[in-house]
Amino acid sequence: MFRRWWFVTWLSERAPEQPGGGRPRRGADREPRRAGRGQRELVLREWEVLRERLARIAADRVTAAGELFRAAELTLAADESAAHRAYRQALEAYEAAGRLLDQSAADPHTDLPDLAAAVILAEQAVERLAAAHALHAGVRPEPAAVRCFYNPLHGPAEPADTKAKRRRRPTRTAREAAADRRPACPACRRAIIAGQTPDVLPALLPAKATDRRTGPLLVPYFTVPQQWSPWSATACGAYDPDTPSLVLRGAHRRHPPH
């Protein structure tokens, strides 16, 4: 979704040395400071563009989920425990998605993974609502889709049985093994096998959170330390069924120093 990382490599390039190895010309010491300021502004501008785009997507998903809840009324009997559980999970996921969306509007430091979690929770609310209707109708619900670890906003990861067949092949390459290490959508898996970086979801690592005072930096969301982000180990909540309760009790609000 966010293949806009051309500037990360550019930011890491060192400034050219002075020709002749002599003393820098007058005012040259100011150039790194100006370059550093320009780099920081570029990163923040890129982050703001991505954040605005993802906020619109999250708002659309939450709105669509709310409309579906209103349209798909469901009256359950007292003995339909499985349907009641699925419906309660759907409501909690929807409420948590709305909570994240509201917080992003109020807090300018809300990062991209928080908004991605809002999208995921809204879509999971729709999945659980469909499961509740299926159980009410006496039909087995569709299994929940396993999301791509590298960018949980991508399409679902490849089915597990397809991976099992690949594992039985004796000619499986090292890159194929690396691609199977985590759930990946077909596009991300192809990128890994080709030796390329998959199209990961980025997160903003502020200057005070970096080892070098060159930040802020955009980094893969799963590289952010877990004490700063609850999303790095759970694919923005996609792999943790307790994510709605985590959000509703406010335990997700962990941020690196700004």
Summarize the model shown.
By secondary structure, the protein is mainly α. It has helices at 6-12, 30-71, 81-106, 112-136, 160-167, 174-179, 186-193, 243-248; strands spanning 202-205, 217-220. A two-stranded antiparallel sheet has the order 1-2.
Descriptive overview:
- This protein is mainly alpha-helical and 258 residues long.
- The protein has 8 helices and 2 strands, in the order αααααααββα.
- It has helices spanning 6-12, 30-71, 81-106, 112-136, 160-167, 174-179, 186-193, 243-248, and strands at 202-205, 217-220.
- Strands 1-2 form a two-stranded antiparallel sheet.
- Helix 2 (30-71) packs antiparallel against helix 3 (81-106).
- It starts with 5 loop residues before the first helix and ends in a 10-residue tail after the last helix.
Which terms summarize this structure?
single chain; 258 residues; mainly alpha; two-stranded antiparallel sheet; 8 helices; 50% helix; 3% strand; globular; disordered N terminus
SSE arrangement, N to C: HHHHHHHEEH
Structural class: mainly alpha
**How far apart lie the N and C ends?**
26 Å
Mean pLDDT across all amino acids: 83
Q: Could you outline the blueprint of secondary structure elements for this entry?
A:
Blueprint: H1 6-12, H2 30-71, H3 81-106, H4 112-136, H5 160-167, H6 174-179, H7 186-193, E1 202-205, E2 217-220, H8 243-248
Antiparallel strand pairs: 1-2
